[in-house]
């Protein structure tokens, strides 16, 4: 951090989520002054083809005037031109190469910045490398928005459960899948339930990523690798989706009083989740009786339940899918950076 307590922030991936995060950061500047004694400034933003940099800070009238943006001020040109303490990375996810997000995160962490990852792809591809880079250059990497947005997961495991050993966890991590399952239990066919999720704006651009278990798997990889030291790979995870559920399944679950949920899970017997022979993980459809908190997740709500050796079973529910919740999760990470630095 700068010694003057002027905190310079750059945002890459200036799409809908990046814009929302920027708006919320600007709206909360007075709160940051009062709480942390800092002046938060947005000093640079960039999208896929253009960017804007001003060390004195950017106000909304310039941020939303496209003519202010400089064509080609992206990638290394942007990283080399912006002097920031914190990077918020919100580019579209690329789960094969990491895409631009991986380049931005590596560039920021290699320059000693703190980084807040919103997109998941870079974390799935090279989380360990990014964490090593952060440690080597005095920065930090936060990922609440990528791990499940408004639902605490990584920080829940790392901080709230720090005094015990986690034996297993299961989590409902994809709001779209949960909404579709609930609407199917209410009588809607799969296609109509998915269309409803799309109408509400919570489905991924390619909804198959949500309903075929890929989104849950990606978040599982991030959570397990970041918080428990596992080394999961997206392409190696057993994965189940919800597209093959039929009327007979729904009728049976109704008769049994059970609620279906698409869950990511990790279970192990060894001393550490990094024990390759000591755990199993994957994504599968599970059903829950009415005595389980997951049975009462409504709409696009999510849930996380961990079994520990000393604290018993702890469950967190909530964090319904919403762009505002995603942005708020990124701002939570920002406040953690302010509090710890």
Automatic annotation (TrEMBL):
Q: Which UniProt keywords apply?
A: Amino-acid biosynthesis, Methionine biosynthesis, NADP, Oxidoreductase, Sodium, Threonine biosynthesis
Please give a single GO biological process term from the UniProt record: threonine biosynthetic process
Per the record, the domain of life is Bacteria
A Gene Ontology molecular function term of the record: NADP binding
Per UniProt, L-homoserine binds at: 204
User: Which organism was this protein described from?
Assistant: Sinomonas humi
Which protein, by its recorded name, is this? Answer: Homoserine dehydrogenase
The protein's required cofactor(s) are namely: a metal cation
Pathway the protein takes part in: Amino-acid biosynthesis; L-threonine biosynthesis; L-threonine from L-aspartate: step 3/5; Amino-acid biosynthesis; L-methionine biosynthesis via de novo pathway; L-homoserine from L-aspartate: step 3/3
Annotated Homoserine dehydrogenase catalytic domain residues: 152-333
């Amino acid at each position: 951090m700068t010694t003057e307590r002027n905190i310079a922030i750059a945002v890459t991936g200036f799409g809908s989520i990046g814009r929302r995060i920027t708006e919320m950061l600007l709206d909360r500047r007075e709160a940051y002054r009062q709480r942390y004694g800092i002046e938060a400034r947005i000093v640079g933003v960039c999208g896929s083809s253009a960017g804007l940099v001003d060390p004195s800070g950017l106000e909304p009238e310039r941020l939303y005037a496209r003519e202010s943006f400089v064509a080609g001020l992206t990638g290394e040109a942007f990283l080399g031109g912006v002097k920031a303490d914190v990077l918020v990375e919100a580019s579209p996810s690329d789960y094969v190469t990491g895409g631009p997000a991986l380049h931005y995160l590596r560039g920021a962490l290699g320059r000693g910045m703190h980084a807040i990852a919103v997109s998941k792809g870079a974390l799935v591809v090279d989380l360990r490398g990014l964490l090593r880079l952060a440690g080597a250059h005095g920065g930090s990497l936060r990922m609440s928005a990528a791990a499940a947005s408004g639902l605490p997961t990584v920080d829940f495991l790392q901080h709230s459960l720090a005094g015990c050993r986690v034996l297993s966890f299961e989590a409902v991590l994809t709001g779209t899948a949960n909404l579709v399952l609930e609407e199917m239990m209410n009588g809607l066919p799969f296609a109509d339930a998915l269309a409803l999720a799309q109408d509400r704006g919570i489905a991924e651009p390619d909804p198959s990523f949500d309903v075929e278990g890929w989104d849950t798997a990606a978040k599982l990889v991030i959570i397990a690798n970041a918080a428990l030291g596992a080394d999961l790979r997206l392409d190696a995870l057993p994965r189940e989706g919800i597209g093959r559920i039929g009327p007979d399944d729904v009728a049976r679950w109704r008769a049994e009083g059970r609620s279906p949920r698409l869950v990511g899970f990790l279970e192990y017997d060894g001393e550490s989740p990094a024990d390759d022979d000591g755990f199993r993980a994957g994504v599968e459809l599970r059903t829950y009786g009415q005595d389980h908190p997951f049975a009462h997740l409504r709409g696009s709500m999510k849930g996380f339940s961990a079994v520990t050796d000393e604290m018993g079973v702890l469950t967190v529910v909530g964090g319904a899918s919403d762009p505002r919740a995603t942005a708020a999760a990124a701002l939570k990470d920002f406040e953690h950076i302010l509090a710890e630095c």
